[in-house]
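Could you help me review a protein record that somebody else here produced? What it holds is a sequence and that sequence's fold in token form. I need someone to confirm that the token line plausibly describes how this chain folds. Take the sequence as given and treat only the tokens as open to question. This is what I was given:
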Amino acid sequence: MSVLVITGTGTEVGKTAVTAGIAALARAEGRRVAVLKPAQTGLLPGEPGDVAEVARLAGDVTTRELARYPDPLAPATAARRAGMATVHPKDVAAEVTALDETHDLVLVEGAGGLLVRFDEAGSTLADIAWAVNAPVLIVAQAGLGTLNTTALTAEALQRRGLESIGVVVGSWPSHPDLASLTNLADLPEAAGAPLLGALPQGVTKLGPVDFLGVAKRSFSPWFGGAFDPDTFAAQFAVQ
């Protein structure tokens, strides 16, 4: 795998932290990493966005942002309100192809959830994944309600013939409630794919060295980490 698309079950679920964690682990293995954000919303020119946060946490990675819109809305809506051009799957595919030629791993981070619209034709991150022929990683919340949104995301991927490689909890709470604990066992079933990690809440406040250490504990060996879902769940007693 040289290209991976990262989607969330919604907004503010920890996609950027997960993207940074995967990038940091790949860099630790000496791999050349690029991170592409097709559309950044809710920020003005010059303000640090998601790719800047990934670079701060992961270190020496190539970053690209194809479009930026000031309103914190879906990219298509934000573009329309700003009177700006939208981003089309073909634009993203062309950038991914160029980055893939000079990097070992290209990470494409979505905006919001899988079916958030990027352009006036209704193109989504699912269309982008199809255009670049890449598998998708689902980033989910830990607590109540996540099984439904995860299952919906997984079903949408399946219906479009896209591969879901697994699910990662983007922000694992310091004091998990009963729903979060039981979801550790139920998320793989909802996703139809394995649990490949759980990043602790607040991890983006760390510096690069400490962040890498946490990433090694929080991601599956599939990404270069040491996370085991059974060992992780065994830390918590669920009645």
In short: The first strand starts at residue 3 and ends at 8. The chain has a mean pLDDT of 95. Residues 15-28 form the longest helix (14 residues).
